[in-house]
Specification:
- The chain is mostly helical.
- Helix content is about 75%, strand content about 0%.
- The chain has one domain (about 10-315).
- It contains 13 helices and no strands.
- Belongs to the EamA transporter family.
- Keywords: Membrane, Transmembrane, Transmembrane helix.
Length: about 325
């Protein structure tokens, strides 16, 4: 699945879930309801992070550590054989993806305290743009529509950055961190897609998230992020809510519905995280972006939609890869 954080990572490369899911019209209706719940879950991610009184790196660590803790009883019992059967290359790539995911969190989460939730979420969801660039660097040609969408999204990014610069240099720095988080997520997505050719979602995400938690723990200790623990009950409650909403409900349900709805519908729907997060932040946190920010957000979303549409058209005419 598109594991992560994103808040904001594309689910187009998520491996399809196993059996046991309803088929036909009834199954599709169930999937659509679950997709709506998943979007609500990931839309709560950025506002919950912004509202949590804890260091950004500590939030990132606890989100992943709690997820690993919840997954452990199930993965270690049901997927023990698969974990043991992972080859050295698969384990190495999974661990590498975990490190890159830690970089993603380490850049994106601090940006939420420096710029608006709307701007940060819009910029971190530019991941498909950077994925396309990386694929091109690897020699894969991309349709013209992909580059048109990329240009449109970059224009939206420029407008957003200009608006934040007019507010403060700190907001511009936050925009840069969020953009870097989106770039890091592209590397995570490509590494995960490679691993999932031969490894199931549960085994991959378990190794990946465990590595991410370990890397973030080291980062917290080295940087002296404090307080690392000893939070009041309200803060622990928000960390638990973040884990349940964004990680277990959001990403897990996206993993569940991608089999029935397909990667195109799922990936396009995840773009609703940006306006969803902005709406939650406006109502809950009182973060109302300037009026001029809304056209910029629409440019970013329109550009991303074009990229995903072109990519999915290409995928529809290609031979499906194992496990993708």
């Amino acid at each position: 699945m598109r594991a992560s954080p994103r808040s904001s990572l594309p689910s187009a490369v998520v491996p399809r879930s196993g059996g046991g899911e309803p088929d036909g019209a009834g199954g599709r209706r169930v999937d659509l309801v679950l997709l709506a719940v998943a979007i609500c879950g990931v839309s709560l991610s950025a506002p919950l992070i912004a509202a949590t009184a804890a260091p950004a790196l500590a939030i990132a660590f606890w989100r992943n550590a709690m997820a690993v803790g919840v997954m452990s009883p199930f993965v270690l019992v049901r997927n023990r054989a698969e974990l043991r059967g992972m080859g050295r290359r698969a384990v190495g790539l999974s661990a590498a993806a975990g490190v890159v995911l830690a970089v993603h969190f380490g850049l994106w989460l601090p940006s939420l305290s420096m710029t608006s939730v709307a701007s940060s979420t819009a910029l971190v969801t530019t991941t498909p743009i950077w994925t396309t660039v990386l694929l091109r660097l690897r020699g894969q040609r991309r349709p013209g529509l992909v580059w048109a969408g990329g240009a449109l999204a970059v224009l939206g990014v420029a407008v957003l950055s200009g608006l934040d610069f007019s507010a403060s240099p700190r907001a511009l720095a936050g925009d840069a961190l969020a953009l870097g988080g989106g770039m890091a997520a592209a590397g995570y997505v490509l590494l995960g897609a490679e691993v999932r050719r031969t490894v199931g979602t549960a085994a991959y995400t378990y190794v990946c998230y465990a590595t991410t938690a370990l890397a973030l723990l080291v980062a917290c200790l080295v940087s002296g992020a404090s307080p690392f623990a000893g939070y009041p009950a309200a803060t622990w409650g928000k960390l638990a809510a973040l884990t349940v909403a964004a990680q277990l409900l959001g990403h897990s349900l996206l993993n569940r519905v991608v089999r029935g709805l397909g990667p195109s519908v799922t990936s396009t729907a995840i773009l609703l995280e940006t306006p969803g997060a902005a709406l939650v932040a406006a109502v809950w946190l009182g973060q109302r972006p300037p009026v001029a920010a809304y056209p910029a957000l629409l440019l970013v979303l329109a550009g991303l939609a074009l990229v995903i549409l072109a990519d999915r058209r290409g995928s529809a005419t290609a031979t499906p890869e194992p496990g993708v």
